Amino acid sequence: MELTVRPRAAETVTLQIPRDTLASLKKVAHQRDMSVEALMKLYIGKCLRQDLTQLFADQVLDSTAKVLTRHHHSDAEVAQILQEIRAENQ
Fold this sequence. Notes:
It is built from three helices and no strands. The chain is mainly α. The longest helix is centred in the middle third of the chain and has 35 residues, at 36-70.
């Protein structure tokens, strides 16, 4: 299997970060044998995917609550069902 990386449109962003944070990024990047820019992209991508996953899950739960409410479930029943769904997915 061959990995194909497709370039995507990009935009340059200027970011101010504390010097000690930059020093830490440089240390970690060196340990991982990658550039600081690549490490920052890795961190941003990883956290962004986590946040988008959580956002999607929250939207699904909101939709579930609306559907359950339309089917005449009480607020207490809806809350209990959503609590069970959250517990199943942790």
